[in-house]
Amino acid sequence: MARFNKIQVLSAMQATGMVPVFYSNDVEIAKKVIEACYKGGVRVFEFTNRGDYAHEIFGELNKWCVSHCPEMILGAGTVIDAPTAMLYMQLGANFIVGPNFNPEVCAVCNRRLVPYTPGCGSVSEISDAQAMGCDVTKVFPAGNVGGPSFVKNVLGPLRWSNIMVTGAVAPDENNLSEWIKAGVFCVGMGSQLFPNERILASDWQYITDKCAETLGYIVKARSK
């Protein structure tokens, strides 16, 4: 069962403005990455379902977060069907993210009041997802469907939308400023926050510093 309710999850996404996205088949590396992000100010983290036994790793991480990163809201990403969503929710996922929009996932998440953020690439998909109860929709792949201008144009007719973007989002001031000015609810970021060479070198301080720097850019962009 989720430790954080729907309002807490959505509020944290909006407040911080960033959701790191990460996967490793090594639970100890994943713990170090989550802890480094936590120290850098991150409070919402997406662990992706991208490898064999990923759900087992997620279950260990979620239990570990209770004592080591108690305010971290851990969710599951790359969830494309309802059975997988139910599996992760049974392991305590606080939110579910997918690269696609699947109404069957909406149903199982809504039943438990767990936020479901599906990947959408058109106004119709975004609107259909909202009609099924998705409070936040993910524009994916954001760089391929039009970038910040796509978000800005969607918010014209669908001004109530809460849009998360992943893909073509970088932890630098100019890039983040463009997305924030376009009106995004939050951004998702993966490999650019966690360069492989830094992971191999166990340079956890780099990740902490990069997260803090990135969150600072978001705050600055929002204040303009």
Automatic annotation (TrEMBL):
Molecular-function GO term, any one: lyase activity
Pathway the protein contributes to: Carbohydrate acid metabolism
Keyword Mitochondrion: no
CDD domains documented for this protein: KDPG_aldolase
Pfam family name, one: Aldolase
Keywords noted in UniProt: Carbohydrate metabolism, Lyase
InterPro entries: Aldlse_KDPG_KHG (IPR000887), Aldolase_TIM (IPR013785)
NCBIfam families in alphabetical order: PRK07114.1 (NF005499)
Subunit structure: Homotrimer.
Entry similarity comment: Belongs to the KHG/KDPG aldolase family.
The name this protein goes by in its record: KDPG and KHG aldolase
Organism listed in the record: Hoylesella saccharolytica F0055
